[in-house]
Amino acid sequence: MIKNIIFDCSETLLRFEAIDYLASLVGDRDRAVRIHYTMFKSPAWHLYDNGKLPEDEVEGALLPLLPQEDRAVAARYLQEWITTYSVLDGIPELLDDVRSAGYGMYILSDFPPSFRRLWEKFEFLHDFDGCVVSFEVGCSKKDGTIYDILLEKYGLDPAECIFIDDVPLNVEIGEEHGISGILFTGVENLRRELNERGLL
Fold it and tell me: DSSP secondary-structure letter at 88?
């Protein structure tokens, strides 16, 4: 019997619009995608996500990965990408329904220390029963251990949980830890899936 629903944050609760913002700065979406992924998929960003690279060292670790002509705009992007998040349409209503149905609600997210700024900006994040973020615990979803940390911290039985994430691999790893998963492909699709499972 499912008693708890665990949500990823980025692109599951919040819309990630940073690449669109970067494209508006450079006037070239392909260039924006290249800059973004060069930094955000790097080993240095993984360390940052896991709280193992201090914020004041991030720029120095990432900018040298880019051509000289990209570094000024990338430096600005590193300061501003976190401000581009917005709440996905329909999420507040869905969360109200999940809460009204009596489920515990938790956040499990791979995120660097800038998550604190999301926490300050979006009050609805405070309504969850618990939250585990990679920078706080020193590991990410790809490591697997973070799932167990969440379960242990809040005394959750994995058989009583469902995990919702927009990344297939994260869902698969959660299932390896005993947590049923739903791949997030949109709010209405998620609502339909929860209805079909008899959860809403």
Answer: P
